């Protein structure tokens, strides 16, 4: 038999982008856990503003079409899906302020906001899927951390959209109070416009003083995270 030569092009399935679905939720349901909530946060990287977390329990019969990692969606599409999610799902939102972030650290503040969002759901979750590496401590139910969860689970994707839209709206309102920094444009990320505003006017009460470059001369979290739309 002639030996088979390997293909000279990568397998399509190895390079195809992840598309979130409902399989992780159904797996948990098969194991006896229902309802299942997805949880995610927005705003770990900015120099200013809160970190916002959301928890979402989707109705399997009314899942909005097009749910995906919020970073893969346009601002307009996020807003459209935000409305649909709130109309069809059980949703809870919580945040940790810049003061809370400075008093603890961004990881702890993010997990605490996620915990409060999950625990505040009007319908208690029996199981939780969270984006990233951690399940928040202090939950009343078991959970699973899912790497790239917002691209694998529609429940986590829905939570990422709710958290992102909520935080963007909060920062747009913050712009009305602190117009010198351009919060409506960059929602607190370390853009050139934002850094110029800090240089000229100094930080305001929304800034995370434990983050570099605000924490000058000391070690602090890096903020070189890509600036989302």
TrEMBL record:
Enzyme class: hydrolase
Cofactors required: Mg(2+); Mn(2+)
Keyword Hydrolase in record: yes
Subcellular localization: Cytoplasm
Residues in coiled coil: none
Catalytic activity: Endonucleolytic cleavage to 5'-phosphomonoester
Binding-site residues, a divalent metal cation: 40-41, 131
Segments forming domain RNase H type-2: 34-223
Alphabetical keyword list: Cytoplasm, Endonuclease, Hydrolase, Manganese, Metal-binding, Nuclease
Cofactor binding comment, as recorded: Manganese or magnesium. Binds 1 divalent metal ion per monomer in the absence of substrate. May bind a second metal ion after substrate binding.
Predominant cellular place of this UniProt entry's protein: cytoplasm
Classification via NCBIfam families: PRK00015.1-3
Family: Belongs to the RNase HII family.
Physiological role: Endonuclease that specifically degrades the RNA of RNA-DNA hybrids.
This protein's name: Ribonuclease HII
Top-level taxonomy: Bacteria, Pseudomonadati, Pseudomonadota, Alphaproteobacteria, Hyphomicrobiales
């Amino acid at each position: 038999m002639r030996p088979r030569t390997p293909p000279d092009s990568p397998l399509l399935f190895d390079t195809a982008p992840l598309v979130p679905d409902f399989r992780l939720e159904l797996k948990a349901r098969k194991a006896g856990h229902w309802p299942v909530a997805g949880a995610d946060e927005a705003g770990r990287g900015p120099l200013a503003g809160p970190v916002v977390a959301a928890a979402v329990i989707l109705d399997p019969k009314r899942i909005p079409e097009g749910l995906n990692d919020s970073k893969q969606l346009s601002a307009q599409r996020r807003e459209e899906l935000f409305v649909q999610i709130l109309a069809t799902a059980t949703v809870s939102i919580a945040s940790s302020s810049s003061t809370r972030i400075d008093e603890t650290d961004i990881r702890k503040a993010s997990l605490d906001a996620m915990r409060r969002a999950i625990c505040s759901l009007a319908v208690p979750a029996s199981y939780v899927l969270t984006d990233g590496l951690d399940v928040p401590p202090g939950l009343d139910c078991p959970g699973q951390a899912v790497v790239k969860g917002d691209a694998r689970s529609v429940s986590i994707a829905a939570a990422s959209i709710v958290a992102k839209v909520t935080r963007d709206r909060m920062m747009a309102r913050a712009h009305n109070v602190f117009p010198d920094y351009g919060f409506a444009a960059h929602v607190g990320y370390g853009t050139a416009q934002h850094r110029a505003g800090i240089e000229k006017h100094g930080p305001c009460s929304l800034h995370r003083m434990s983050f570099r470059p605000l924490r000058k001369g000391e070690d602090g979290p890096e903020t070189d995270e890509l600036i989302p739309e």
